[in-house]
Amino acid sequence: MSRRGAAPPDHPAKGRKALGTHHLRSAPLDRTYQLIEPGPVVLLATSDRGKPNIMAMSWHMMVEFTPPRIACIVSNRNHSFAALKRTKECVIAIPPATMARTVVDIGNCTGAEVDKIARFRIPTRPARHVAPPLLPACIANLECRVVDTRMVSAYCMFVLDVVHAWTNPALRGASTIHHQGWGRFALDGRVIRLPSGKA
Ligand SMILES: Cc1cc2nc3c(=O)[nH]c(=O)nc-3n(C[C@H](O)[C@H](O)[C@H](O)COP(=O)(O)O)c2cc1C
Q1: What is the 71 CA–ligand 1 centroid distance (Å)?
Q2: Predicted structure pTM score
Q3: How many domains does the chain have?
């Protein structure tokens, strides 16, 4: 499937029937995250005393262009939390949609009980700057160091700097997975281009 779009669509309001388009409905606050959560779902690799582990993660956001800085939420109920807090290193890997089932399985068990890399036969490769491994079956791998832990105790929020980024040319254009909550996922699709002065 081509991800290059044809002409951008017209303004959404143009030509639409007026009737009903402005009827709004209250949405439950405990479902708000399903509306705004951006994805892509990523795999977070950590390494605790030489033992690598991976978890699924979709609560993350860019904070700065350069150096590339990312904020992410890693629950303190997860095995990965202690490793990330202690070592201050991780790899964020962006899996292709073809890995979706495996990614969800990885997010539904804990490294405290299973060796997920062995169980799910995830290929790994040493990273250049950090101890956690790269996951070369993914579209991209970001080697990261924790640069700010001030929000960890309040929100389990870590701020990371990307110190090296890798992409897999064989997966160029592959679709990513976007979590919409409770087992519902969207795969990214058509690309459109619109004039924008901003990056
Ligand atoms: C699609 C998906 C997205 C997830 N996103 C997050 C997240 O952003 N932060 C988080 O702490 N846990 C998230 N989880 C849950 C962890 O992946 C899960 O608790 C995992 O078992 C933790 O593994 P660990 O105990 O080996 O660290 C997600 C799970 C799934 C399936």
Answers
A1: 15
A2: 0.89
A3: 1
